[in-house]
Structure formats: structure tokens, C-alpha cells
Design a protein that fits this description.
about 400 residues, alpha+beta, Ubiquitin-like (UB roll), 2 domains, globular
């Protein structure tokens, strides 16, 4: 979808300004460089990829967060600066220094983020040359351009806002994310930035972010691959003047709003999965603990046979049962397992449900969003994972990714 066709509804966050530029990092005349300015006093929480081959900007961002409070975020697309060794770390630091010189802060007050092709040297000169235009464009209204400027193979930008009142004070939570392929986060999504004008101390901010991430970005999968560059940030500018304290009603409400933004962004990523035509909600009920619910959900979500059946709109419930059976749940009583597509009962008592017809299953499979529900009948724990189907286009997009 062309940029001009995409109108994004959002609420600006006081204390956050964003500027976007076309730096020609991979392709000419496309937005690929974003600067986020954080008001003085803003507090930043972050989670990063657990991939051992983490990207150079992840290494540098972690270091800078240990040293000082960030004032600027620098994001580029088109090049991941991953698998680039010591030279990549030096390049990330050089980009931070270039922005610091441009805006008049210390290099350690800049956090770098990159996404794109792995293993290629970062075009530092192009990024540095694009910084004046990005900084000149800084604006509280810059979220939509920035949401476009962080995309790689995504087909649509992802931007979400929530408004709430805390003790009668209006508060905004706005977030943007990018991600379409190489999605099986082990902390967050590929890149996500959430901001609020509430004042939140760092320990509480980190706790709110981790809780939100664990039940949103950490519950999605497109292809089972964890990126080298995953990062998710929560910035609290404090511009509203309202202080949120731990163990308060306001903290609970803000946490719910942050979580809602993260869930909506996470679902948008799966819906926009590379080549995806369907969003699949996988709900596993009746587990003894969350771990076995997630084991079943991810076995379904990662199965190429299950994902291709969804692409073909084929209600091949045997593939679903087989995936549940190989999920590694100890002492699973298959006679108790029940399986649904939306409200259509597919299987129970170890086989096809007596009420099931192929026509009913086929009707559900034609929908753009489908819910698979598994009831293990072993306990009272529930877990949800979001995934998508697996199409011809996924193979084409990734086969052609570097060409």
C-alpha cells in the first residue's frame, strides 16, 4: 500500500518528537532514517533480543543504557548492522557520535537501532548525511512518517494509541512497531517503540514493559526465527506532570494501556507476516501450567503442515491433532483433548467430533481471522499465541530478500 493511501490515527505524546529522512541506505527516495527526541527527564525501559549473535546496535544500546539516560533514539532500516563484528560496533558508535554532534548531546545519550540485511557493512556516511534532514523534521506529529521509516518487508506501518485518565489527568500511550518476517521474538518484536507522557520511575517502567512484552510480542510467531536485532522500548516523558507509583491503581491502569498497545501492535505484525493471508489465534485451555499450554500453542503455530493448510483453507484437522500430540506434554490423555475452529468442534474423545462436517470447517477456514482452541482438560491454565498462514509469497519474499 502506498504511503499516500495509508492514513494512520494516532495521539502525539508530549515530550516526544520524531523526524524522518530518506538517506538512501538501501533504496533511493524511501524513508529509512528516524530520529526520536526524548524530552529531558524522560525515563526509558528496554528489552532486547536474546539471540547470541545480537546486532552491533543492540550491543551499543545496552552499553549506553548502563551509562546514562537516553535523549535520542537513532533508527535505520535497510541494513541490520548484524554479523559485522567489531567494525559494526564501531560503526554504530560513529552514528551515535554523528547525531550527538548534530543535536548537542553526548554520544552515550543516543541509542542506535538497525533493521534490514544481516552481514553487510553499515553505510555510516549515508546515515550521517541524512541526519540534518531528520533533525529538521523533528515534530510531535512525526509518528506516521516514523512508522513508515522503520519498515523493511512490512506492507503497512503499525501505529497504535490509547488515551486514559489517571486520577482525572488525561494520559496518552502511543506505540509503533515494525516486523513481518524473521518473527519469533524471545523478548519483544523486531523493533517497537512505546511512549507515554506519564512520569514513571525506571524500575516500574521496566516491570510494566516486561509484563506487556511477555503477553504480546513474546506470544507471536510468523516463521519461528528470532532476529538478531529485536528491541522494544518504553519511554515515559513525564510531560503530563502525573507521577505513577508502584502498587497503585494508576500503575495497574497504565500497565493495562501499555499492554493493550503492545497486543495490538503484535497482532498487526502477525497479520502483516510475509506473504500472510490469515491471522490465526491459537488458544490453549485446560493446561496444568503455562509452559505446557505454550508448548502446544507454539507446536501448532510453527508447523509448516498446519500453516500451509490454513493458506489452502483446508480444514485438515488431522494435522492439528498431530501437532498437539507431538508438543511434548507429559502423560497427555488424548481422549480428553478437544479441538475447535472458531465455534466448530473438530475433534474429541480421540477422533473426529460426531457433530463435525467438512462444510462447517471449510466455512471457517475461508475467513481472514481464525481461532484455533485446544482444551487439554488437565488444569485451569490458559495461554494464547498469534501466528499466520504460510504462503507461496513467504518463500518468494525471503528467496529474493537480498536481490
Amino acid at each position: 500500500m502506498a504511503d499516500s493511501d495509508q492514513a494512520l490515527a494516532f495521539e502525539p505524546v508530549p515530550g516526544i518528537r520524531l523526524g524522518t529522512a530518506c538517506a538512501g541506505i538501501k533504496k533511493p527516495a524511501r524513508r529509512d532514517l528516524v530520529v526520536m527526541e526524548l524530552a529531558p527527564g524522560s525515563q526509558t525501559a528496554a528489552v532486547f533480543t536474546r539471540n547470541a549473535f545480537c546486532a552491533a546496535p543492540v550491543t551499543v544500546a545496552r552499553e549506553h543504557l548502563q551509562q546514562t539516560t537516553p535523549r535520542y533514539l537513532l533508527i535505520n532500516t535497510g541494513n541490520a548492522n548484524a554479523g559485522t563484528g567489531a567494525a559494526g560496533v564501531a560503526d554504530a558508535r560513529q552514528c551515535c557520535a554523528a547525531l550527538a554532534e548534530q543535536v548537542g548531546c553526548r554520544p552515550q545519550e543516543v541509542l542506535p537501532f538497525s533493521t534490514g540485511v544481516i552481514g553487510e557493512p553499515l553505510p555510516v556516511t549515508r546515515i550521517a548525511d541524512g541526519l540534518p534532514a531528520a533533525c529538521a523534521a523533528l515534530s510531535e506529529a512525526g509518528w506516521p512518517d516514523a512508522a513508515h521509516g522503520i519498515l523493511t518487508t512490512d506492507t503497512v506501518p503499525k501505529l497504535v494509541s490509547r488515551r486514559l485518565e489517571l486520577d482525572g489527568r488525561p494520559i496518552t500511550v502511543t506505540g509503533m512497531a515494525k516486523g513481518s518476517g524473521m518473527i519469533r521474538p524471545d523478548m519483544a518484536t523486531m523493533l517497537a517503540y512505546i511512549a507515554t507522557d506519564a512520569a514513571v520511575d525506571p524500575p516500574l517502567s521496566q516491570s510494566l514493559l516486561q509484563e506487556a512484552v511477555d503477553h504480546s510480542f513474546n506470544r507471536i510467531t510468523v516463521d519461528g526465527d528470532t532476529s538478531t536485532n529485536d528491541a522494544c522500548l518504553l519511554v515515559a516523558t513525564g510531560a503530563s506532570g502525573f507521577q505513577v507509583t508502584a502498587d497503585s491503581e494508576a500503575a495497574r491502569q497504565l500497565g493495562e494501556a501499555v499492554a493493550a498497545v503492545c497486543v495490538e501492535l503484535a497482532r498487526a505484525i502477525v497479520r502483516d507476516g510475509e506473504g500472510a493471508t490469515k491471522l490465526i489465534n491459537i488458544v490453549v485451555n485446560g493446561g496444568q501450567d503455562e509452559a505446557e499450554c505454550l508448548a502446544v500453542a507454539y507446536t501448532l503455530a510453527h508447523s509448516p503442515l498446519v500453516k500451509t493448510a490454513f493458506f489452502a483453507s483446508d480444514p485438515n484437522w488431522g494435522r492439528l491433532l498431530a501437532a498437539v500430540g507431538r508438543a511434548g506434554v507429559a502423560n497427555l490423555d488424548v481422549e480428553k483433548v478437544r479441538l475447535w475452529l472458531d465455534d466448530v468442534l473438530l475433534a474429541e474423545a480421540g477422533g473426529r467430533a460426531a457433530s463435525y462436517t467438512e462444510e462447517r470447517g471449510q466455512k471457517v477456514m475461508q475467513q481472514p481471522e481464525i481461532t484455533v482452541t485446544v482444551d487439554l482438560q488437565r488444569g485451569d491454565v490458559t495461554a494464547t499465541v498469534w501466528t499466520c498462514d504460510f504462503s507461496y509469497d513467504y518463500v518468494r519474499i525471503n528467496a529474493e530478500y537480498r536481490t
